Amino acid sequence: ILNLVPEKPDSPVPDAHVIKQGDALSLNFNPGLVTPWSDAFRFMRRPIAALFKSIATGRLIFIVNVHLAPRSATFTHANERPPNDQKLLRRRYQSRVTAEFVKEILQADPQALVIVGGDFNDSHLTESVFKPFTDLGMQHAAALAGFKDTERYTLVHNMNSAQTDHFLVSPAVAKAGISFEFIHLNTWSKSYVGATSDHDPIQMVTTVCKL
Fold first, then answer.
1. Phi and psi of 181, rounded to 5°?
2. Euclidean distance between CA atoms 107 and 112, whole angstroms
3. Is the pLDDT at 199 greater than 90, yes or no?
4. pTM for this prediction
């Protein structure tokens, strides 16, 4: 069981930063927004960072939720080749900015438990969107769980299945072990009307509370 570490003083725009006091890490705002003033997120959703504590062990775990710029690609089956995704550069920029915050955490404590998750609006095959995180040693939870590329999807876009919702975990979380599942409630729906969302939920379980 996790508890949110006691909240810090409120702010109209809680710009989250990592604070290190001795060996202990905390956030100046909890929860807080990640680089809310960056042009990367102008008129778009800002990532949210929160710090939780395991009741059983007292271990801290940082969770960062993202929702990157939506896709604006021409259809994959249209005349334009290659398809033109005008928001790809924005997603790359957003990933770089968010990864800088994660870097703050891992530089302060390389063994920190960090999970970054949410709607990246891009496939794991678009490596440039995820490179800022993988360069820090973070790994895709679906890959750690052994899923093949052909099994990794959370929505159908332009008649193509793709995984756009992801969890990436720090080395310490990967070492602790995870299980991961795609729950195909919507992509397997018999009709669009019968689906509750255009995305499938994903679930990850980790044993960090037992460390």
1. -140, 140
2. 9
3. no
4. 0.90
